[in-house]
Amino acid sequence: MRIFSVSHKTAFVVDHCPYMAESSRQLIECDMLTKSRSQGVIPLAPVSKSLWTCAIECSMEYCRILYDVYPTKKLVNYIVSDSEVHILNSWKQENQNTQELMTALAAVGPPNPRQDPECCSVLHGLVAAVESLCKITEYQHESRTTLMDTADRVANRGRIICLTNAKSDTHVRMLEDCVLETIQEQNKRAAGSDRLMPIQQCELVLVHIYPQGEETLVSDRQKKELSSVLSSEVHSVRAGRYLAGKLNVLVQQHFDLASTTITNIPMKEEQHANTSANYDVELLHHRDAHIEFIKSAQPSFHCMNGLKETVTLKWCTPRTNSVELHYCTGAYRISPVDVNSRPSSCLTNFLLNGRSVLLEQPRKSGSKVISHMLSSHGGEIFLHVLNSTRSTLEDPPSISEGCGGRVTDYRITDFGEFMRENRLTPFPESMVDAACRTPVERAKFQLERHTRYWPMIISQTTIFNMQAVVPLANLIVKDTLTDEDVLTCQKTVYNLVDMERKSDPLPISTAGSRGKGPKRDEQYRIMWNELETLVKAHVGTSERHQRVLDCISACRSKPPEEEERKKRGRKREDKEDKTEKNGKDTEEKGWTTDSERLKGVMEREKDEQSECEIIKDSPDSPEPLNKKPRLATEEQQPPEKSKGPVSLLTLWTNRITQANSRKHQEFAGRLSSVNSKAELYQHLKEENGMDVHENGKATR
Amino acid sequence: MPTAVLLDSSLSMTRPVSVEGSEEFQRKNLAVHGLTMLFEHMATNYRLEFTSLVSFSSLWEVLVPFTRDYNTLQEALNNLEDYDKTCLEAALQGVSNIVQQEWGTSCPCQVVLVTDGALGIGRGSLRHSLQTVKQRVEDKKFPLPFPFPSKLYVMCIANAEELQATDSMDNLEQLINLNGGEGQIYTMEGPLCLKSVQSMFGKLIDQAYSPFHAVLRCGNLTSDVQVFPRPEPVTIDEEVDPMPRTVQTEGDEIGTGATDDTEEETSTNQMAGKSPNFCVLLHGSLKVEGMVALVQLGPDWFGMLYSQADSKKKSNLMMSLFEPGSEPLPWLGRISQLGPASDAAENPYGEDDSKSPFPIQPKHKRSYAQNVTVWIKASGLQTDVQKILRNARKLPEKTQTFYKELNRLRKAALAFGFWELLKSMAELLERECTLLSDSAHPDAAFQLSHAAQQLKLASSGDSKYAAYEHNITPMLTDFSGGGGADRI
C-alpha cells in the first residue's frame, strides 16, 4: 500500500453559484400527522433541498465514511467557489474532521440567488484546488525529511472532486482544460519552492448535479487520460438519493472499500418490547477484510439493487471464547452506511459497550463457518478477520518439552511482580527526559537495571526468598535513591545482622543436597555474598547506592580471623587517621573528589563497623566456629606490621587495597577458602556420577 | 510456512544417468535423494512445519497430505511408481486446490517442483499451456499466480545446458514470472550425480529452509529462541520504502502491557535442555498474570509475546508480529511514547490494579460514536422532526430534551444551507402551539412560540441568529422556574 497515492489528498470543490440554490425537486414530507390528531388540520407543504444542500450533505457523508475508516493520512481540503474562493480547512491532520467542516459550511451559508451570476464560477474553486494540491502535507514533509537523499520517492498526487451544475459538455471540457492549464502553471511555480511540490498525478472527478424531473445537459464519461498528469471522468447525476448513492460508490472506489451486510440482527421492537425482529446493517471497511472471498471467488458475494456489491454475513449470538482471537489475521475499521438508523446505532452501541459479535457465512448446508468478528477498541469498531481454515499453528508443543522446561522452581510469582512493576503507559509526545530518551528507551533502561541480578529459579537465590530483604531489593534497582531510601536499605541490613545474631533460620534451598544442607553461619555467608552481588550490580548508579554497599560491607559477618585482624589494626589506624586528616586539611585543599569520597566512605564505615561490632561482641553472639591456627593469617600480614611503625605509603597503599577489594567480586576460591587456602579439584571427590551446580545443588 | 512438494513421476524421470562409476542411477533416484535430504533437514530443524507430497504425470495424486510426520513422507518417497507423460498445468492446479482447501488463501506456502525438465509434448505440455495462457476463459485460468502468497522453487534434475538446449528453461522462467517473480529455478552443476543433487538441494535449504534463530532479551535476562514459522521480510510501502524489512535476530522485550487482544499473524516459539531458561520463566508469568509482553523486532517494528494454550492443556510462548510501523495498534498509541508506569506521577493502573491507561481514545470520535445528523434518506429527517414534535407535546416536562433536539436540527440545517427546513419547523411549532389543549401548561405555549421565533430568525441568515455555535436556550418565564428538570 502506498501512502502517497492519489488518495492521500482529496480536494472537494463545491459550486456555490446562484444556480445551486435551485430546488432539487425531491420533496420530503416532514409533517407526518398521526391519525388521532389529523382531524381538521391542513398538513404542511413538503420541503425540498436545494442542489447546494444535496451537494453538501453527500460530500459530508463521503468525508464521514473516509474519516471513520482512515482517521489519519487520507486528507481532505474543502473548497467552496462563487465569486471568490472559500477554503474551509487545510491539509493539517487537526483540521480533518466533519465538525470543523460543518461549522465552516454554516458560516458560508446557502448560495445567494441574488448574486450576480456573471462574477460567479466554479473555476475559481478548481484553480484553488490545484494550488492546494501543490501544497505539501505534514506527512509528505515528514517523509521527505526522514528519507533525506531519497526524498524524491515522496510523490505528490491527488484527486479533485468537483460538485457543480454544468451547462453542457462543452462547459465540462472548458473546466477540464482549465484544470490542466493550471496544473502546468502551478507545477512550474512549485518546482522552485520548498513548501510546494509539482503534481505528478491528478484525478479529476466532475459530478454534474441536476434537479429531478429534468433532462441532463451533460453526458457521463468514463475516466480518460487528458495528459500524463491529468485524468478526468464525468458523472451526471440527479440530485437527492441518486447523488448520495453515487458518492457512496465513489468513496468505495477511491479508498479501496468494500461492503458487508450483517444480517439477522435480533432487535427488540420499540412498540412491543417482548418481540424481536431481525434487521440488516450495512458496513463499509477496507477491501482486504474480504480478501479470502475475493481470491477464492466464494459465492457469498451477492448483489443488492443490482448496483451495490456486498457480502452478507450472519450475526451469531455473542459468546465469550477467546480461542478464536488467536487466529485473527487482520482488523479493519468500519463505518456504517446508514449511521443514524436505529438498527445501525443499536449495533454500534452494542459494540462500543465492549461486546463482540461473531459473524458466520450464510450456507445452506454443512457446518457453520465463522469468518469475521466485530469488536471495538478504544471507541473504534473493527471488523476482525478470523482464520476459518486449518492453522499452521495447530497442536504446538508444550513449552515444558523445550529447553529449561523440566526445571520446576522458576520464580513465576516474582517475575509476575517484576512485570507489573515494568508495565508500560503512554506518555505525551512532548515528554522527553533530561537525557533526551524517549519513553520506550527509558522502559528498556529500566528493564536493564531491574535485571542486573535476577536469579530465575528459587533454589538459586536466598535473598529473594526472604521477606526481610524486600525493602532493599525494591529500592536498590531505582535510578535515584533519596536519603530516606538509603536509610531504609541500611535498616534492612541491620535487621539482617540482628537475624544473624539471633541465628534465625534462612530459607536456603536444601533440595538436592544431602543431609541438612549448609550450617547456619555458612547460610548467612551465602546470604551476605548474594546481597553484596545484588548491591554491587547497582553501585555505579549513584553515590547513595555506594553507601548501601558500604553499609553491607561494614555490617556483614566476616570470617573470624579477619575480625581479629581488624580489631588489632584499628587502634593504630585511628591514630594515623587523625594526624593524617589534620595534615591534609591544612596542606592539600586540592585533593581529588575521588580520594575525598573514599575517605568519607571509610570513615563512615568505621563508625558503622564499631556500631555493628558492639552488637557482635555481645554475650549472645555465637562463638566463631572456625577457630583455626593463626599461623597462616600471620604470614599474610605485611612484614612491616610486625616491624613497628609503618610508612605513610604503606599505610595508604593498604587502605586503597582494602577499599578496592570491596569493589570487585571475590574469587570463588578465596571466598570458600579456609585460612586463605582453597582446596583444588574438589569435584574429583564427587566421582560417583554426580555433577555439582554452582549453588551446591546436585542434579542427576 | 507449509510446503507442497510436487514430484514429477513421468516416464522420463526413469532415464538413466550416465556415470563413469559402477552404480547406475535413474533421474528419479537423484530426485528422491535430494528430497530425502530436504525432509531430513526439516525433521531436524523445521519439525513444526507441514509438508505434503504430490506426484504427477498426466494425472496427479496426493501421496501424503500435509503432515509433520517426516517418516511418512520418507516412506512415500521409497515407494514411488512410474507413470506416463508430464502435464504440469493440471498438477499446479491440483497443488493450488489442495493448499487452498487446507490453509485458505492468506497462508503463505512454498511449492517445490522436482522435475527432469522434460515438460511434455503436445496438449498438456507446459509449452502448450504457456502458449494459450492469454486465451483462457474465466473458469479455465492458468493456476499461476497462486491465489495464496507463495514461492515456487523448481528443482531440475538436469543441468542448465541441457535445459537451454530446448525451450525448457524459457518455459520454466515464464512460469516463475507468471507467479509474480516469486520463486527460483535451481539446476544441477556438473555431471548428474548424488553430489551435485546434494549441492542443489543444499542451496534450496539455505535459501528457503534456514531456521530462524534469535535472542530474546529482557534487560540482562536472555534466551536463545527459534521461531516457527520463520518470519518473512515485509515491504511496507514499495514507493517510499522499497526495501523489505526483516525481523532482527535480537528481540528486545520492552515491557508489558495488559492488553489481551491479538492481531496479525502468529508464530510459535519452540526451544530445544534442562538448565533454567528465560522463555519458560516469561511464559509462566505471562500465563499466570494474563499479561502480554511487547517485543521489538527491528526499527519501528513490534510484536507481542503471550502464552497460548490449545485445548489440551499444553501451552507455549507465542509471538504475534504487528504490522511494521510506529503505531501498529491505534489503541496503544505510538509505541515510542510508551514508558515505565513508575515514571508517571500517579500509577496509571491504580493502586489495586483496577485501572488501565489503555485503550487510548482517538482525538476525534468516529461518526457512530457521536450523535451525527444525516438526512440523506427522507426517513432520517422525518425521525428528527418527529422527535422534536414528540417532545414539544410534553412541554414543559421535556424542555431540556426539546431544546437539545431542536438545536441539533438547527445546526445541521445551517451547515447544509437548508434554511427552508428551519422555516417549516417553525411553522410546525407554531401549529403545535395552536393545537395545545386547555389543560396544557401555560409555559408550553411560551416555549413553542419562542422556539419558532428563534428558528425563523436563524433562517433569515442574519449572522446574529444564524451562528453555528449559537444555541437556542429555553425562554425564562414565570412558570418555567428554570425550565424543566428532566434529563436524558
Could you please describe the fold and organization of this structure?
The complex is a heterodimer of chains A (700) and B (488). Chain A has a seven-stranded mixed β-sheet with strand order 5-4-1-6-7-9-8, sandwiched between helices. Chain A has a seven-stranded mixed β-barrel with strand order 10-11-14-17-16-15-13. Chain A is an alpha+beta fold and 700 residues long. Chain A has 20 helices and 20 strands. In chain A, strand 12 and strand 13 form a beta hairpin. With 488 residues, chain B is an alpha/beta fold. Chain B has helices spanning 27-45, 70-78, 88-103, 126-131, 160-165, 168-178, 194-208, 278-289, 378-392, 399-415, 419-435, 442-459, and strands at 3-8, 16-17, 25-26, 51-56, 60-67, 109-115, 150-159, 183-188, 212-218, 221-228, 250-257, 266-270, 292-298, 301-309, 315-321, 338-340. Chain B has a seven-stranded mixed barrel with strand order 9-10-12-15-14-13-11. In chain B, strands 5-4-1-6-7-8 form a six-stranded mixed β-sheet, with helices on both faces. In chain B, a hairpin with a 3-residue loop joins strand 4 and strand 5. In chain B, helix 1 (27-45) packs parallel to helix 7 (194-208). Chain B is elongated. Chain B starts with a strand and ends in a 29-residue tail after the last helix. Chains A and B meet through strand 3, helix 1, helix 2, helix 7 and strand 14 of A and helix 3, strand 11, strand 12, helix 8 and strand 15 of B. Strand 18 (424-426) of chain A pairs antiparallel with strand 16 of chain B.
